[in-house]
Amino acid sequence: MSRSVLVTGGNRGIGLAIARAFADAGDKVAVTYRSGEPPEDFLAVKCDITDAEQVEQAYKEIEERQGPVEVLVANAGVNRDQLLLRMSEEDFSSVLETNLTGTFRVVKRACRGMLRARKGRIVLISSVVGLLGSAGQANYAASKAGLVGFARSIARELGSRNITCNVVAPGFVDTDMTRALTEEQREAIVGQVPLGRYARPEEVASSVRFLASEEASYITGAVIPVDGGLGMGH
Ligand code: NDP
Fold it and tell me: Which residues line ligand 1 (CB under 6 A)?
């Protein structure tokens, strides 16, 4: 059955791979994009998730064009890496505002329709560093750890309405975000990953699609690592 899916930040990287995975399975897929060109293959709605009005407008357009969102993948995220003593209030709050508060905004809005339908699937994209910590990423790691408590609270609040909320925690994935690292940093990271390589965005997308599938109907409040073994035990 074709469902109405929304992927935030679906114009590139992991989000685009997730959007493609749902579309390949026959779902109707909308993506939000903030800058650059919209991807042609999906319903693309311009939306900055730090702006409540843009989030509302995006949902209205998606609801009109493909129906209420039945599957939400909150993927949009940013990093602004800096060691703690050099990290400004703005570095900290802007990352929290996008990754955590922005996710709150899109999830809250999606839940309206899901509660009415008495079903829904929500998947949040966190990160292995939310649980492991990462020097130079206190803001990013805090935001990604916050998503776990947020997801588990929603799983408890909305479970009785047949709405699941799960987290995927990727390790290092080959996208623009990690291409910004130096070659030296990339090599050091790969050295710590038991599988000895970066993930392809599609390898994250397949877990997201599973969590939104009928096969995962009894999974909620889970944190699924897709990290090549990097975070084992966390
Ligand atoms: P990219 O930097 O390649 O893409 C980030 C996406 O988020 C873009 O679509 C971007 O839109 C969007 N975005 C950023 N800020 C906003 C905003 N305020 N409003 C709306 N959209 C926004 O990142 P990845 O694909 O690598 O990452 C996707 C998610 O996966 C992120 O949440 C990231 O933290 C997480 N992740 C990534 C890992 C990695 O190794 N790459 C590892 C673990 C987690 P635009 O194109 O307009 O900038």
Answer: 8-9, 11-15, 32-36, 47-50, 75-78, 98, 102, 125, 127, 170, 172-173, 175-178
Q: Tell me: ipTM over 0.90.
A: yes
pLDDT for residue 70:
98
Distance 78 CA to ligand 1 centre (A): 5
CA distance 166 to 179: 27
The pLDDT of residue 147 is 98
**177, pLDDT greater than 90:** no
Token code pair at residue 60: 């209205």
Residue 6 near residue 110, CB atoms below 8 Å: yes
Which pLDDT band holds residue 8 (cuts at 50, 70, 90)? very high
From 37, 50, 177, give the residue whose CB has the most ligand 1 atoms within 8 Å, as the site to mutate: 177
